[in-house]
Amino acid sequence: MIKAGIIGSTGYAGAELVRLLMGHKETEIVWYGSRSYIDKKYADVYRNMFEIVEDVCRDDNVAELAKEADVIFTATPQGFCAGLMSEEILSQAKVIDLSADFRIKDVAVYEKWYGMEHKSPQFIPEAVYGLCEINREQIRGTRLLANPGCYPTCSTLSIYPALKEGLIDANTLIIDAKSGTSGAGRGAKVDNLYCEVNENIKAYGVASHRHTPEIEEQLSYAAGETVTLNFTPHLVPMNRGILITAYASLKKNVSAADVKAVYDSYYKKEKFVRVLDAGVCPQTRWVEGSNYVDVGFVMDARTNRLIMMGAMDNLVKGAAGQAVQNMNLMFGLPEDMGLDLVPVFP
Fold it and tell me: Which domain does 261 fall in, by range?
């Protein structure tokens, strides 16, 4: 059995990790870390775990946790994981960080966009970006895993095949994104109150959202050149889900069948990426509660643009599900273990 510890287990992503790992037959959770609820029963924080989880919440002492666990998940704010990372910890346990601390290779870019000094830049070169469908082999051998952000996961998987094959002009890319409110975390914030969110939709982080450099970096690898793009997220009144719509000018004279063949060739062996038929638009309701990403596209001959779309659950494939998928790869288990989840509807 893999012994797992979760720091930040009472946040939304942490709670989703608990839910998924409770159904993972090769994993035992040995540490429910939560600075806010130390010594409180986990099931008293999340009553859906009543008579399922009997443990109490513990602190965020990662050095002590590393002695008990084989893998540590840090579902924590930016800066936490980088602030405690050490060779001693990594020599005892693998670390899967759900924050942005090790996602961006250029430390100056991280410090600019996140407004903080990186406390352990010496570990950035060895950290592997955990987008399983693209970096699978590197993931298998790492001890420090940077779990991708939710918007970057959906954006990259929706755009990657077209960009990698040179079908679109990278410098014309515009990404419009929508997310449910769980993406903002469980902390009390006025902007996330029911009356503020209900019956409303708003753009936020316009031209400044922190996921922008992460998306640009990953798409630059695909394009083989530096990609600069516009990324605009929006908050919508639903609990879960991300929908992205990306626009780019076509560089090649291709048909819809040609584009579909490209996407099929990239994802035909990928369980968790479902390529929809041409013209079918992804919807968040068809992926909720699952680790699937539905991708699709529409060709606009009038403007000579390819419109690429993706939908996924921000807490599963966008956070906890992808973290479990990465754990499976890191420990040589079947990649879909514990993730064979049929989307929930209604």
Answer: 151-313
The pTM score is 0.96
> Are residue 115 and residue 165 in the same domain, yes or no?
no
Q: Please report, to the nearest 10 degrees, the dihedral formed by the alpha carbons of residues 280, 286, 288, 289 taken in order.
A: -130
Alpha-carbon gap, residue 129 to 134, rounded angstroms: 9
Same domain membership, residue 165 and residue 112: no
For residue 249, with 0-12 CB atoms within 10 Å meaning exposed, 13-18 middle and 19 or more buried, which class applies?
Answer: middle
Of 57, 81, 132, 150, catalytic = 150
Q: Confirm if 191 and 181 have CB atoms less than 8 A apart.
A: no
Q: Measured between alpha carbons, how far is 214 from 237 in angstroms, rounded to an integer?
A: 25
Question: For residue range 258-311, what is the model confidence (pLDDT) as tens digits?
Answer: 999 999 999 999 999 999 998 899 999 999 999 999 999 999 999 999 999 999
Task: Please check whether residues 118 and 237 belong to one and the same domain.
Answer: no
What is the separation, in whole angstroms, between the first and last Cα of the chain? 35
The question of whether 150 is a catalytic residue gets the answer yes
247 Cβ contact partners less than 8 Å away, ≥ 6 residues apart? 172, 173, 174, 175, 176, 305, 306, 307, 308
Sole residue written with tokens 């693209």: 134
